Every structure is written in structure tokens, then in C-alpha cells.
Amino acid sequence: MPGRNTWVGYGNTMGGMIDIAWLREHPDTLRVALARRGLEMDLDGLIRLDVERRQVRMEAEQDRAEQKRLGLRIRELAGDEKASAVAEASDLAARYREGVAEADRLDRRFSVLWAQVPNLADPSSADGLTEEDGVEIRRWGEVRDFGFPVQDHRRLGSDLGMIDIERAAKVSGSRFGYLMGPAVRLEFALVGMVFDRLEGYGFTPFVPPVLVREEALYGTGFFPDDSGQVYEIPHDGLYLVGTSEVSLAAYHSNEVLDEDRLPLRYAGFSTCFRREAGAHGKDTAGIFRVHQFDKVEMFAFCHPEQSQAEHERLLAIEEEIVQSLEIPYRVVNIAAGDLGASAAKKYDIEAWIPSQGRYREITSCSNTTDFQSRRLRIRYRTAQGNRLVHTLNGTAAAIGRLLIALMENHQQSDGSILVPDALQSHAGFDRIRPPDKA
RNA sequence: GGAGAGGUGGCCGAGCGGUCGAAGGCGCUCGCCUGCUAAGCGAGUAGGGAGCUGAAACCUCCCUCGAGGGUUCAAAUCCCUCCCUCUCCGCCA
């Protein structure tokens, strides 16, 4: 077993995003990259701080070297000679301690700032700062001409005995739902179908922990920026993951992987927990935006030169899954300024939601390049030394939103819902009928 | 929850105050040898940071023997706190 995760976080010279050498050598490139994301930072100040912390540490280390040289001679000395040597060594030791303490302080200051710097946006990610700036790159499927008044998933869910929001509010508050009856069978059918497919593509299925330590969240880039979205269990110092991306990425933290075993492809099924802070009044109906949902997530560790291809591959798998469910969708290249901290490039699949008359996000697929692997220290071995891997993640099946898309797109005039072919054998039924008409 | 035992390099495993970043073994790499194979022989083989460099290599220094503190001129070795693993008992989905 590899050693425990010893993420160093604050005070760690590696705790930032991109290679620190980038800051030193290409500050202007970094400045431009930040501007693409609509960010401004005091890079000159950061560079000065970087120079200072290295200088201070170097001087302290020189004291330390001197002290060690002297210490080695001490045991050969005696009497006054020994006493004065001990005194001098003691003095050097004290100076060293002070110097290191100062260097640590500077490192912490540096790292706090550095940890806030997001990944560089890929040149091919869309320009712009907001959700609206995302560029649609293709559409698939035909939006049905229903010919009858469409019901939203909430109405369908309650009519068909699949979703209960009211009682969830009684028990847990807003933004929760009970899935029941056919919805549960559909969930497990989806999970089964998706795992079948993913195993065929070389993914190993996982059920990862959903409670993780702080290190895993810093390592994946959810901390410090998105800490407000994360549920905390203060008593135990643990956090509930918003996606199994967190526990899958951290799975290999502090490890050196064999180059010829790359890429490693994992698929995690887990419940996901999100506080949805700041989303007041947004998507309040039904289970579109809830605090808890289940999801199958793809995750890949790959060679840096392969990550762009891997990204396209993940997207293709996502599309294939949505296509097999016969849900019309479009693919959006997310704007640079709308990317999370960790992503260099991100594609969303948006499914057509008939009741809303628009496309809504049901999957998200990111290339996080070496942002997470640097923080989590995940490398691969080469003849020239160890290099950082690239990591990617993509939604294979976000159950709640997929259920919405399935229910609404496949609803019939009699109030029933047709189950797509691809799901029937897993579900064990081909249509969901209202209880009274069953 | 109670009682014990432990955490050392890719792995196993010694060391228990000073040339120990670490014996020995396994594995791996390179070379030699053996008409194949097996065996044998020799050498090398942890990670990170800083300095040097146009950039590397080399070289020098510092840090890391689960993590963080402490004692000491000096700590893998002594002390404290925490984390983790294992065994037994209890409880339990």
C-alpha cells in the first residue's frame, strides 16, 4: 500500500495549480490566461513573495549545514573546545529554527494565494465569462411534437408514484425528494446499463467513500473556491462529496503509477451531496436541483499527451449513453470564465426538457490536465523521472436529471411513460403506467 | 467503545542517540558469463525542495524513516499529540 495521503496544503511549495516555474518564467502568459477567466491577481507581488521565501529558506539551510558540520566534530572534542563548539552549534541551531519558521510563514502566505489560482484554460475552450458564452457545438435527436399538453417531471412523478417532493420537504426540508416505485427500478436499470457499457470500455466500477477528508477536496480543487457548496461533518472532520470525482481522484494520491498501465479508467457510483448555496429560487420545482442525488461518474488518469483525446472519448461515451436513451440533446463547450477552478476545458451535455422548452445540463465532462494531479501528487514513472499524470472526469449518468429527461421526453398522451429499448431489459418493464390504469 | 501490537525505500525486513537516507533480501535496470533455458558474477536502483546551468546532466546543500510538535550540539532511534493498520473482546447494518 502506498503511504497515507500527506497533502501538505498550506505551506507546501507545490500546493498551487500550475507549475510554479510557470509563474517565474511566463508571468505574462499566466496574466493573459487569468484574464480569459475574468480574473486579476497581483502576480508581481506573488513573484516577489516567491523570490523572498526561497531566499529566506536558502539562508536558513546554510546555517543548518554549518551546524551539522560542527555537530559532527563535537564528539571528538573535549573540555573547553567542546563547550564552545556546543555553544556555537546551539547558536546556529537557534538561527536555523528562526529562519525556517520565517520561511514557513512566507510559504504559507504564498500557498494561500497560489491555491486560489485556477487551472489555465485550454485555448480551445470557448471565450467569455458566463454560462451564456458557452458555444453549442452540436445537436442530436429530434424534439418531439407532442400534440398534447406536456407534463413536467414533478407532475408525472407524483401521478405515476415515482417522486414525492412534499413528504421529502416534511422530513428533510427543501430540495430533497423521495424516489420510489418505478423510479427506483429505473435508477438501478440506468446504473446497470451504464456499468455494462463502461466495463466494455475498460472502466473499473467503484463504489467509493462519500465522506472524505479536507485533503481530497483541496486536491481536487473544490477547496478553497467552492467550499460553500460542501456539507461538513465537523465532529469528525469529514466532508460529504458533491461527486465521486473527489474520492476517485484522491484514490491514487501520493502514488507513482506505471506508465504502461495508463490510462486508468474508473467508474464510480455514489450519492452526491450539494448545499446549493446561492441557488435560492433557482430550479425550485421537483428534483432538478436537489441536495442529494446518485450518479455514475467516469474518471481517468492518463498520460499528458493523451488527455485531449481522452476528453473527447469521455464525451463520446456520454453522448452514446444519452443517445441510447433517446433523449434529444446538445453539446456545449463551456466558456473559459465559466469553468471551475480545476478544469482547463469542459463540455456539458444539455438534454431537452420539454416542460421548460429548453436544453438543461445533464452531464459535464472536464479535462483538469495536471491541476488535480499536482495537488494530489499523482505521477507516473518514466526513464527521465516522475511526471504528473493528467486527470479527467465526466458524468456517465446523473440519476435525477436523467430521470427527468426520460420521463418528460418519453411521456405519452395517456399519462404513461415509455421506457427506451436500451433500458427495458435492465428495468424489466417497457412502460410506466399510472397506478389506477395499470 | 475496552485491551494489546505496529506503521522504515517498488516490496519484505534490520536498525532503537552521532559518517543511517538507512544492513540484508526480493524485484527492477545495465553489463559480463554460460552454445538455449535456469542458475551465476559485477554495478546501479527512494521522493521532494533550493543552489549551480541558456536548459539539462553532473555537482553542492536542505527536508522526508505515518503526520505534527518537543528534548538535544546531534533523533528513524527519547518524550507528547494526532492519524492509520492489525489482533482479541463488546456492540452492530
Report what the structure shows.
The chain has 438 residues and is of the alpha+beta class. The chain has two domains: 20-114, Serine-tRNA synthetase, tRNA binding domain (Helix Hairpins, Orthogonal Bundle); 131-437, 2-Layer Sandwich (BirA Bifunctional Protein, domain 2). It is built from 13 helices and 18 strands. A hairpin with a 4-residue loop joins strand 6 (232-233) and strand 7 (238-240). Helix 7 packs across helix 13 and helix 8 (214-220) crosses helix 9 (245-251). The model is unreliable at 1-17 (pLDDT under 50). The protein binds one RNA strand of 93 nucleotides through helix 3 and helix 4.
What key attributes describe this structure?
438 residues, Helix Hairpins, BirA Bifunctional Protein, domain 2, 2 domains, 8-stranded mixed β-sheet, 3-stranded antiparallel β-sheet, 13 helices, 18 strands, 40% helix, 21% strand, RNA-binding
Put the structure in a nutshell.
The chain has 438 residues and is an alpha+beta fold. The chain has helices at residues 20-25, 27-36, 43-74, 79-114, 153-159, 165-172, 182-200, 214-220, 245-251, 307-324, 371-376, 399-409, 421-427, and strands at 135-140, 163-164, 178-179, 204-206, 211-212, 232-233, 238-240, 255-258, 264-273, 292-302, 329-333, 345-353, 358-367, 378-382, 385-388, 390-398, 417-418, 431-432.
Topology, element by element:
Layout: H1 20-25, H2 27-36, H3 43-74, H4 79-114, E1 135-140, H5 153-159, E2 163-164, H6 165-172, E3 178-179, H7 182-200, E4 204-206, E5 211-212, H8 214-220, E6 232-233, E7 238-240, H9 245-251, E8 255-258, E9 264-273, E10 292-302, H10 307-324, E11 329-333, E12 345-353, E13 358-367, H11 371-376, E14 378-382, E15 385-388, E16 390-398, H12 399-409, E17 417-418, H13 421-427, E18 431-432
Parallel strand pairs: 4-9, 8-14
Antiparallel strand pairs: 1-11, 2-3, 5-7, 6-7, 9-10, 10-16, 11-12, 12-13, 13-16, 14-15, 17-18
Helix pairs in contact: 3-4, 5-12, 7-13, 8-9
The protein binds one RNA strand of 93 nucleotides through helix 3 and helix 4.
